């Protein structure tokens, strides 16, 4: 994309956003399904969106399996979900036809308690050794990110060994908390979640073990507030929103 084309695209998006929320635009109450790993980022952006537009958001943050269940069992207006949700045929049918809009992406890494010695994770062999040497590792298996971490363990040939070390969490935030409170020696998950008080990010997964988890957005097929839902998705693509996404340790788009 040329600089001129990119500038025109940003200008068009910004103008569209301004026109959509001119005085007198009707406020709506929007039900949003969202990945639990973007709770902090989406709460901040959602609050600004509410202030700017008068719309109100009710956001259900959850793991991929639970988001699939929610999408196929109850009304909602839009989703900002791990792309894995869209790869489930029943869940995808709950969203409007057409491509979804990628909002943010982030890779995987390892964290230790703040101030603790950082193991070498720069190569697959070093990562394997660090995991095997750790007494305990905080994980969230019941999620798209957790499923990928498990696959990495399998690729490293340590899946069985890691089962004995696993300190299983029920929320993404619990991983960093477990490390910060010495309930686990290492935390393994998305790097934005591991960038938290009380922990230090050791590093990212090395080489071809690294993979981005993409969060993508789409309006629900039976959205009661389709216009408001689309407006929120457009808002998440504005320059200001993209800067906030970057500030939260993710990459926009």
Q: What does the secondary structure layout of this molecule look like, with pairings?
A:
Blueprint lengths: L2 H18 L8 E7 L3 H15 L2 E7 L1 H8 L6 E5 H4 L2 H4 L8 E6 L1 E6 L10 H10 L3 E3 L4 H13 L2 H7 E3 L3 H9 L5 E5 H4 L4 E6 L8 E7 L6 H10 L3 H9 L3 E2 L1
Parallel strand pairs: 1-2, 1-3, 6-7, 6-8
Antiparallel strand pairs: 3-10, 4-10, 4-11, 5-8, 5-9
Your description of this structure?
Residues 1-24 have low confidence and may be disordered. Strand 1, helix 2 and strand 2 (56-62) form a beta-alpha-beta unit. The strands form two sheets. Strands 2-1-3-10-4-11 form a six-stranded mixed β-sheet. It has a five-stranded mixed β-sheet with strand order 7-6-8-5-9. The protein has helices spanning 3-20, 39-53, 64-71, 83-86, 89-92, 124-133, 144-156, 159-165, 172-180, 191-194, 226-235, 239-247; strands spanning 29-35, 56-62, 78-82, 101-106, 108-113, 137-139, 166-168, 186-190, 199-204, 213-219, 251-252. The chain folds into two domains: 3-103 and 214-252, D-Maltodextrin-Binding Protein, domain 2 (3-Layer(aba) Sandwich); 108-209, 3-Layer(aba) Sandwich (D-Maltodextrin-Binding Protein, domain 2), CATH 3.40.190. The longest helix has 18 residues, at 3-20. The chain has twelve helices and eleven strands. With 253 residues, the protein is of the alpha/beta class.
Summarize the structure.
This protein is of the alpha/beta class and about 250 residues long. It is built from twelve helices and eleven strands. The protein has two domains: about 5-105 and about 215-250, D-Maltodextrin-Binding Protein, domain 2, CATH 3.40.190; about 110-210, 3-Layer(aba) Sandwich (D-Maltodextrin-Binding Protein, domain 2), CATH 3.40.190.
